[in-house]
From TrEMBL:
Residues 1-78 form the GST N-terminal domain. This is Glutathione S-transferase family protein. It holds the Pfam family GST_C_2. It comes from the Bacteria. Residues 83-205 form the GST C-terminal domain. It comes from Giesbergeria sinuosa. SUPFAM superfamilies: GST C-terminal domain-like, Thioredoxin-like.
Length: 205
């Protein structure tokens, strides 16, 4: 399998962590979707990463779709409950973590995208998106509570998704003091960083 992505994308990192936890072999093919000569649209018509090229050449995209497919490939280290309310809860935490990232990335693009002038950037839009980030962090902390992991005593997809979101915020928005505000999220992130799957996939510029 080939994973198309970048070392800075938190969504790509989520897939890479799942690949490592599931002990699946793959090749990472780096792609800059913002480069003028990018060919990402030939793989994903939405022009986004990650994309997974499976054996046989078929392609799937969107990190949530990819990790669900990967979790079903092998019984090793099951990350998503098979059915029922537990499954819905884990997928909801993943959706929240991804939503926090969606909002934070919109803020970053609003502040840095070269296609917009300083006068075109909207402080009100930035404030709206940042409120989603802060409410999301509060909700993630409240949901984790005093538990070791979202699903109990073993890390699962919810923890991976939240951990990737926290790692990217630390990388791109170091001014957000989520460790100080939510010590339980800091403890979760520290535990995850002790795992090779997380330590080996830290975002780098």
């Amino acid at each position: 399998m080939k994973l198309i992505g970048s070392t800075t994308s938190p969504y790509v990192r989520k897939v890479r962590v799942v690949m490592a936890e599931k002990k699946l072999d793959y090749t990472l093919v780096l792609e800059n979707v913002w480069a003028p000569d990018t060919g990402i649209a030939t793989i994903n018509p939405l022009g986004k990463v990650p994309c997974l090229i499976m054996e046989g050449g078929d392609t799937i995209f969107d990190s949530r779709v990819i990790v669900e497919y990967l979790d079903a490939l092998s019984p090793v280290g099951k990350l998503i409950p098979s059915t029922g309310r537990e499954r819905a809860e884990i997928k909801t935490w993943e959706a929240l973590a991804d939503g926090v990232l969606d909002a934070a990335i919109l803020v970053r693009l609003e502040n840095t995208f070269e296609g917009r002038s300083q006068y075109q950037r909207s402080p009100a839009w930035i404030e709206r998106q940042m409120s989603k980030v802060h409410v999301g962090l509060h909700t993630m902390s409240k949901g984790l509570g005093d538990k070791a992991y979202y699903g109990g005593i073993h890390p699962g997809l919810a923890d991976i998704a939240v951990g990737c979101a926290l790692g990217w915020l630390a990388f791109r928005f170091p001014e957000i003091d989520w460790r100080g505000q939510y010590p339980n999220l800091g403890r979760l992130h520290d535990k995850l960083m002790q795992r090779p799957s997380f330590a080996d996939t830290q975002p780098v510029a």
